[in-house]
Input
Amino acid sequence: MITLGKPLRAEDLADGRRRRLLEPHTIVVTVKGKALTITVPVGFISDGASVPWGLWNLARPWNEFGPAAVVHDYLYERGPSYLPRVTADWIFGEHMKAICPTLPGNWLKRAWRAVRRRAMYRAVQIGGWWSWNEHRAREKE
Output
C-alpha cells in the first residue's frame, strides 16, 4: 500500500524535458505491516516517465503519474544499496495505482488511465534495465 504525501512541486528546467523538485516529495510504502518512508530531496532532477517521443500520444513524460516517475527515478539513482530494481519497479506500479482514485474522470478516462498505467509498469519491467545499468555505470566512474 502507498500513502501519498503532498502534491509534487517542481519547476521546469531550460531543456524543457526535466524538472527540479522545489520541496521534498514523500510517500510511505507499507508491506506486510512494515512501513518504508521514501523522501525525494529538494533539488532532485527527473525526466519524468522515460517515454520515447514516438509514444507520447499514449503517455507523455509528465502526465498524472509524474510523481510516481520521480520516485522511481530517485530509487533507480539510489540503486541496489537502497532497494533492488524489482522493488523499485513494484513501488512505481503501486504508486500509480494509488494516484488513480484521486483523479477525476468518467468511466472511459478511468479505463484509459488504467491501460496507460499497466503499459508504463510493463515498460519499466521490460526496459528499465537500461536506465538501471546506466546509473550503476556512473557510480563506477
About this structure: The two ends are 36 Å apart (CA to CA). Residues 107-140 form the longest helix (34 residues).
